[in-house]
Design brief:
By secondary structure, this protein is an alpha/beta fold. The chain is built from 5 helices and 4 strands.
Length: about 180
């Protein structure tokens, strides 16, 4: 049962949105798909573990930190998530109920590529329908397009708009191709 009031969480909010959208008279509730980028990908992973009837899920440059039970060190500074390891019990419990086809999009310059790969491998090992596409030179949020970023550390960043558009086309095709019978 989702919490309410001050105790509501992003997962509870996501569940409420899914429920609301599925009840709209012009929406086919069996065709609802989710797309989340970065921590939004973390949220989408949780949502498909809670609502196994979601048609398809796309995790763009996911940061599945809490979904996989990754412990980050306390204190200041940005933790090195490239070396993060999941908590096997947390990851297994979250992955077990998933029936939704999952597409993971990640770039080679994304410092979370190792975590995305770990998520993919754990889903695959558990027999879940998952696919991961890796984009050359893609930085963490490339799937959202250039967003006016001046990335001097990625001198080929301007070539990523094509990749972002390709990822969008792939996402739409993935959703169209997903079928409840394939789960």
């Amino acid at each position: 049962m989702p919490s309410s009031g001050a105790n509501a969480t992003a997962i509870d909010d996501g569940l409420a949105v899914i429920d609301f959208v599925k009840r709209l008279p012009y929406v086919d509730g069996s065709r609802v798909s989710l797309y989340g980028v970065s921590l939004g990908g973390n949220l989408v992973a949780y949502l498909v573990s809670k609502v196994p009837t979601i048609h398809a899920a796309i995790l763009g440059a996911p940061a599945p930190i809490w979904f996989l039970g990754v412990q980050t060190p306390a204190g200041g500074g940005r933790p090195d998530l490239s070396k993060a390891t999941p908590d096997p019990a947390v990851a297994e419990a979250n992955i077990a109920p998933i029936r939704t086809p999952v597409l993971i999009l990640v770039g080679t310059e994304d410092r979370l590529i190792t975590m995305a790969t770990t998520l993919h491998d754990l889903l695959q090992k558990a027999g879940k329908p998952v696919r991961m596409d890796v984009y050359e030179h893609g930085y963490h949020d490339f799937v959202l397009g250039p967003q006016g970023q001046d990335r001097k550390d990625l001198p080929r960043g301007e070539v990523l708009l094509g990749g972002a558009l390709e990822a969008l086309d792939l996402s739409v095709s993935f959703v169209k191709a997903a079928s409840p019978g394939a789960r």
